[in-house]
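Morning. Coffee machine broken again, so started the prediction first thing and wrote up yesterday's gels while waiting. Chain of 382 residues, entered below exactly as on the submission form.
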Amino acid sequence: MQGVFWVSLFGIAYSYFVYPVLLFILSKLVRAQQAPLICESNKAYPSISLIITCHNEQHRIKEKIENTLELEYPDGKLELIIASDCSTDDTDDIVKSYAQQGVKLVRADVHNGKEYAQKLAIDAADGELLVFSDVATQIPTEALKKVADKFHDPRVGAVSSEDKFISDDGTIAGEGAYVKYEMWLRALETKTGGLVGLSGSFFAARKEVCQQHWDIKSPSDFNTALNCGRLGYIAISCDDVLGYYKDVKDPQKEYARKVRTVLRGITAVSRNPDVLNPVKFGVFSFKVWSHKIMRWAVPWFMLLALLSNLSIYSENGFYALTFYLQAIGYILVLLTWKLPSLQKNTLLKLGFFFVQVNLAIAHSTVNFLMGRRMVTWTPSKR
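Came back before lunch.
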């Protein structure tokens, strides 16, 4: 049982701590030369099709369109497409009212999910680059020019924004700190041959990357990163390309969003098992194992660590101490859940968020094993 305990501790630590250290070391060993990323004139900018996917967003679609129309990009080189996933409210009518301003509506004939609506938009798009966004994300006015600049490097197949998570009072804590960690991890992956997943709320890709193999039952951010690997491109994260979004107001809906996101991720890997083959995908495969598979295993390692520690805690003082530390930690998380005021403490909120995330992962894994899949979607209200 001592062996199980130590293996479990390593399993918990690997994805969050060991993997980043390995990436850091790898980044020092492999220093790829970057091609110049400067646009000298409007002629240097490629044409862009900006695809905004939505489903029943009548209360927010106007604000999103107005934000998009303010983006800076050379005249005649930006196409705006609203991909409506068979909306049943006034979303489509609002979009049509902007037709004279060049806004194009692509409506899915059935409510078949975000990726299905995106596929229809990809087929209708004229741009050399495709930029994907959702209604909840605010894009800075200069962002598209910065995105286009990145594609001057011929190795780049996709570009992911960095998420800026903002609560109602403008503070960044709890999940905001987690998002910061994820952005730091993406920066390390960028330096070592590319990402294994992009920010689904705002990313860009060469059109050929999206046309290669668009699986409507897998998340588009994973689709795009995987297709980059298949075509010999890399997907990168850029700290000067930002997407701003607010947290989900309802904690229960936020938990459901996490369950849905992880379930879709597990489904994507199950539908593309070759991505786990390091002979075929090399370092990309190593990253999928480390960033995805090992992280999805963390809740089960946590359970094993607690149970194995319980069985050996009487053997010596060290194992008694580790058991009591685990027990105290879970009690504090339970108190933080029952007494939301405790979430003002950053450490308690981080601990609560860590346990909540892993509960969602475990929930998603059980759902997957029971045969449940997630295709259709209803965007979270923020």
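Residues 32-42 have pLDDT under 50 and may be disordered. Going to sketch it on the whiteboard this afternoon.
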